Amino acid sequence: MNTFSVAHLVPDHIAAFEQYIPSRPDDELKKLYGCDRIFRLNNNENPLGPPPEARNVIKRFSPEKAAVYPNGDAFHLRSKLSRHFGKDPDQFIVGNGANELISFVIKAFCREGDNIITADKTFAVYEWVAQFSGFNARLIPLKEFGFDAAGMAAAIDERTKILFVCNPNNPTGTYWDIDTFRTFMSAVNGKKIVVLDEAYCEFVEKEDYPDGMKLMEEYPNLVVFRTFSKMYGLAGLRIGYLAGSVEVVDVIRKTCVVYSVNAVAQDAAIKAIDDQDHVLKTRRLMAEARHYLGRELDRLQLPHVIGETSYIMVKLPMSDSLAYRKLMRHGIMIRSMTGFRFPNYIRVSLSEMEMMEAFIKALTEIL
Amino acid sequence: MPKTPVLTIAAESAFLPVAVSFVKKTCQGYGFSQKETTALVLAAEEIFVYLNKLNPGTMISISCRSKPYLMELTLEFTAENFNLRAFNLTSTVDVEYESSLEELGLLIAGRMVDSFSINQTGGKIHMSLMKYMGYKEAAATGYTPGPMVSRTIDRPDPLEVRMVAGMIHESESMADLPFFFKTPLMVADMHEAGDLAALILKDRQNTIAGGLFWKSLNRNTAEILGPYIYGQTGASQMGEELVEKCLEAIGKENFTGVICRHYGHDLPEQYFETIGTLSGKKIFFRQLQEDTGTCAWLHPSIAADIADRYERLFLPRNIIAPADDVRPRTPYTVISSEVNRAADTVVMHPLVLGQDVLETVAAHCLLFQSDGYQTILFTLDLGNSAHAGWIPALTENGFTTALLVPYGGKGDLLTLAYHHPNRGGK
After folding, report:
1. What is the pLDDT of residue B102?
2. pLDDT tens per residue across span A238-252
3. Which of A10, A26, A350, B371 has the highest CB neighbour number within 10 Å of its CB?
4. Each residue of B35-72: pLDDT tens digit?
5. Under 8 Å CB-to-CB from B53, ≥6 apart: which residues?
6. Which residue of B has its CA nearest to A23?
7. How many beta carbons lie within 10 A of that of residue B25, not counting itself?
């Protein structure tokens, strides 16, 4: 038998990169950690699930349709988004979650030697996709838990192609207000692509929060990411979208993988986007959980960062990975934050009171 | 870094001068001294000659890789019946037997280098022999930093690395440090080679008051060395800042965990877990990722003890017992030994499990005891089913579990400590 060695075929930037290992399925974790139920407070999923009409679409999805390819570029959903936001359908690209969209944008604009700029403590996928695509990711330290607009602008050079801003930031929940955003866009001066990742925008109620969908009319170099995974409870179907000027989106579309978004996801998203009642209900639930956790964490004298999103960050007097294991024994799954460069912090999804109380009870026991 | 030169050649007597010349010229080209060059040349020559006698004409690839502080000689070949036993530190030759004399060369090769590793997959052998650059003892500087004003934590330049390494060398006992701290220049060379990362504490006047180093132990585990802080009030806060910055840097690398065996007074323990004690010193560890569980191959004789440790460390593990009717197929056992004379410690690692495992382990322990080593350790990878077969021989020889490093190898790395039956333990 011929022996095959793959090593010589692997580029250095891939060899240096470690694969991401996702969590095991709940049934496996329950066996390993010896717990009879798991409260998932690690992925910022909406405890209310999808809006009612989206639920109906999923329930009614005909098995026969599973044999048919979905629409290749989410024609109906893009039409729906265009009506919802008052834009041209060609200003939208729908993807298999925001992760895929990040990849499209980087592939569209970067070539060998180029760089992207983002923060050091933010959603890791911008950095990962850049690195395993062979591009340099310049990571600017956060300032008081928020993106450093001046620091990012100062890091721009002639090989910078894209600046990724997570607004509000995951995992800190901080956001740029409209003034900070405008100052930053002025500094960029229309020379680079700015991606505003608004995965959690529907949770923010503050007046000074900038709405990327409106602002892109002023800034043609602005690309906005949104998702149906968080507020709209469709994380399991993997669907998100980006929007920008037709000129920019046409370039990004060249790198898109068609047929990557399944039919039921497209149909459910069409029904989800208009449900403002669902948004209000979710916000009320988040506000209640936020208030409760804030009070309890104060009582426990644990430093915490509460932002405008569906999660909070807590600093523990112990290793966050140890806290993860201890909490798992109580059936509570949180996100440890060392991988986000926040050692000894955990991120906890806001959820229904039963889960919040179970979390605080378990946390009190392990401290 | 220049491209690694490689020579692929048939193991024929006629080509021995070519192989020897290749290693010699490469070492000289990299600027290695006569002493280290001679050691590697001799090691390569002995292995070549042995291979020529065992499998004449088999192809051997020889490569030499240089770093500022070491030269690594790699030999790759396919050979049946290649006797790795000669690499045991306890190996001897019997002059009455020719076959034993033939292995003398291998024995010499093993003794010529500072460390070696061998991987054997079927008949394919990958042998790596390393020789460290010779360093002179460092002269004492007597430097003691004054109080810092407006301190920062920075990545150091080479001179700053030497300075911090010098402070550590002069202030700490070598028994508490890894061997390369014996000479600050070696620390600086390792840093330059990218094999050691560092953070230092300094202020605006360039007063340097200490630092922290880290390095890769293996694919999964990093090791933090420090923090070490001198001449400061509030040093515990500085230690926390150094560790936090270090974890931020390591947190997105490929490691699953970080171990801390060598540290000063200012280690912030709340960032770590205690995973055991060695030579009376607590060993700290922390995982860098969420533990999604793994399996552990454990002989029933120690399964309950390890299960209890897993429970205390909240580690989710499936314990699997190996089949009890499996007997080693090879006659001879091979063990690699890592010796730290300054710390009076030796760590053994399993290479080949043979039918003489009980006697070979006993012989190693006897040798190290007679040489005066106070701490004799043996490591097993619980993710490697073959390692479970070593456990009966180790427990019978007086080894007990001392340390469990989660994912320290393919699976968890178990360290067992030797307790001499007549001394009542160490």
Report:
1. 57
2. 999 999 999 999 999
3. A350
4. 889 989 988 998 898 888 888 889 999 999 889 898 89
5. B102
6. B292
7. 14
Whether A339 and B289 lie within 8 Å, measured CB to CB: yes
What is the distance between the alpha carbons of residues B47 and A340, in angstroms, rounded to a whole number? 48
> Phi and psi at residue A82, in whole multiples of 5°?
-65, -40
Query: DSSP secondary-structure letter at B217?
Result: S
Banded model confidence at residue B158, pLDDT cuts 50, 70, 90: very high
- H or E stretch covering B362: helix B357-370
| Sign of CA pseudo-dihedral A321, A327, A329, A335 | negative
Percent of chain A with pLDDT over 70: 98
- State the number of CA atoms in the 13 A half-sphere of B13 facing the CB: 2
List, in order of start, the domains of chain A with CATH numbers. 21-49+276-366 (3.90.1150.10), 52-272 (3.40.640.10)
More confident residue, A14 or B86: A14
Scanning B129-188 for CB atoms below 8 A from A yields: none
Q: Is A70 helix (H, G, I), strand (E, B) or coil?
A: coil
pTM: 0.89
Q: Residues, chain A, total?
A: 367
Cβ-count burial B237-271 (b if 16+ within 10 Å, e if not): ebbbbbbbbbbbebbbeebbbbbbbbbbebbbeeb
Over residues B265-291, the mean pLDDT reads 93
Q: Where are the beta strands (DSSP E) in B5-114?
A: 6-10, 59-67, 70-78
The 3-state secondary structure of A175-228, one letter per residue: CCCHHHHHHHHHHHCCCCEEEEECCCHHHCCCCCCCCHHHHCCCCCCEEEEEEC
Whole-Å CA distances, A166 to A175, A217, A291, A340, B96 = 8, 19, 24, 14, 76
The answer on pLDDT for B392 being more than 80 is yes
Closest chain A residue to the Cα of B269, Cα to Cα: A318
Residue A231 half-sphere exposure toward CB, CA atoms < 13 A: 25
Whole-number Cα distances in Å, A25 to A28, A51, A247:
6, 25, 42
Distance from C-alpha of B44 to C-alpha of B218, rounded to nearest angstrom: 26
Provide the token pair at B19.
């192989």
Q: How many CB atoms lie within 10 A of CB A246?
A: 13
Cis bond upstream, residue A89 (ω within 30)? no
- Concatenated DSSP letters of A307-341: -SSSEEEEE-SS-HHHHHHHHHHTTEE-EE-GGGT
Q: Which two tokens stand for residue B417?
A: 């400590």
**Which one of A293-297, B30-34, B78-82 scores highest in mean pLDDT?**
A293-297
Q: Note the pLDDT tens digit of each residue in A189-240.
A: 999 999 999 999 999 999 999 999 999 999 999 999 999 999 999 999 999 9
- CB < 8 Å to B313, chain A: 325
**Partner-chain contact A317 B273, CB within 8 Å:** no
Residue B318: beta bridge partners? Answer: B295
The reply to whether residue A322 touches residue B286, judged by beta carbons under 8 angstroms, is yes
Q: Do B314 and A338 touch (CB under 8 A)?
A: no
DSSP code of A73? T
3-class state of residue A250 by DSSP: helix
* Structural domains in chain B, sorted by start: 6-132 (3.30.565.10), 152-287 (3.40.630.30), 294-418 (3.40.630.30)
Cβ neighbours around A10 below 10 Å, total = 11
Query: Residue A96 has what pLDDT?
Result: 95
Angle of helix A263-272 relative to helix A52-60, nearest 10 degrees, comes to: 160
Residues of chain A contacting B287 with CB distance shorter than 8 Å: 319, 321-322, 325
* Residue B46 CA: distances (Å) to CA of A59, A240, B16, B23, B100: 74, 64, 10, 13, 14
| A/B interface, count of CB pairs below 8 Å | 80
What is the value of ipTM here, to two decimals? 0.87
Q: Which pLDDT score is estimated for B329?
A: 76
